[in-house]
Amino acid sequence: MFFNLSKILWFFAEPLNFSILLIGLTFFLLLLARRRFALVTAAGAFLILGLGAWTSVGALMMHPLEDRFQRPASLPEKIDGIIVLGGGLEGGVNLVRGGYEMNSSGDRFVEAAVLAARHPQVKVVVTGGSGNLLLKGEGDGVTAPRLLTALGVSPDRLIMESQSRNTYENAVFTKEMVKPKPGETWVLITSAFHMPRSVGIFRTVGFDVVPWPSDYRTSGDEGIGVTHDNPQDSLQNVSIALREWIGLVAYRLTGRTGELLPSP
Fold first, then answer.
1. What are the per-10-residue average pLDDT scores of the chain (264 residues)?
2. Which of 16, 141, 174, 186 has the CB geometry, 3.0–4.6 Å to 160, for a possible disulfide?
3. What CATH number is attached to the domain comprising 78?
4. Within a domain: residue 10?
5. Is residue 223 part of a domain?
6. 8-28 burial code (b ≥16 CB/10 A, e <16)
7. Do 111 and 212 touch, CB atoms closer than 8 A?
8. What pLDDT shows up at residue 4?
């Protein structure tokens, strides 16, 4: 229920989709000769798209998320496992073509391969099924072995979890699978903007992890003003950050995290 509802609500709340709906509503209001209301909806759509594409608002929304957890200067000599959250592979493409195409969050798997090379005896867990409500795609837990073995990680080190659909299920299913013991050190890899919610969820289910953020979308130096990024990436940053902030609130209200913005 939570999964389906979250996907439906986000479809309407996503800035680009919401702007398109406002534009459609504008034409409908014009047909009804409600020009004043049509002007308001048209202005709303332009404001969302203009601020998102041409200003640094997306980067500013990202900063508190990406800066919340810093990557450790080093890891202990002995770690017990590496956990990679799915979301970095093109499930729809890989389902048809059988490859391992990465999307903009693919750095998660690059970091996993780097850490796996530094700690050659450690198991690597990839958790993630298909998180789409309607679109068909191959879960990252299915695709990842092809990618990681190509990057030099031995297949016998890989543990795949391919049933989870969201971050909460990532944490629950992974804990059930690996059964972490007190005192063990497990490293969690996900996008920097996604790390606060991920750490909060893992803590809630009783699985302590060492955050290893990757896939940064901002430099951290952006100020208020016109964006220095391309409009597509700027608008995408707004969408990603808004989704993450909504997710933090929703997960806190439903008891899936213990804090609104988990602290280091």
1. 80 93 95 93 96 96 97 89 94 90 94 95 90 72 93 95 92 96 95 97 96 95 90 95 96 93 90
2. 141
3. 3.40.50.620
4. yes
5. no
6. eebeeebbeebbeebbebbee
7. yes
8. 76
Angle between helices 231-253 and 57-66 (to 10 degrees): 50
113 in a structural domain: yes
3-state secondary structure at position 195: helix
pLDDT reported for residue 74: 85
pTM, rounded to two decimals: 0.91
**Distance from C-alpha of 245 to C-alpha of 243, rounded to nearest angstrom:** 6
Q: Do 94 and 139 fall into the same domain?
A: yes
Helix (H, G, I), strand (E, B) or coil at 227: coil
Read off the DSSP letter of residue 226: B
Whether 262 is covered by a domain: the verdict is no
Domain boundaries, position 239: 1-66+231-254
The reply to whether 97 and 158 lie within a common domain is yes
Question: Could you give the number of structural domains in the chain?
Answer: 2
| H-helix or E-strand spanning residue 214 | strand 210-214
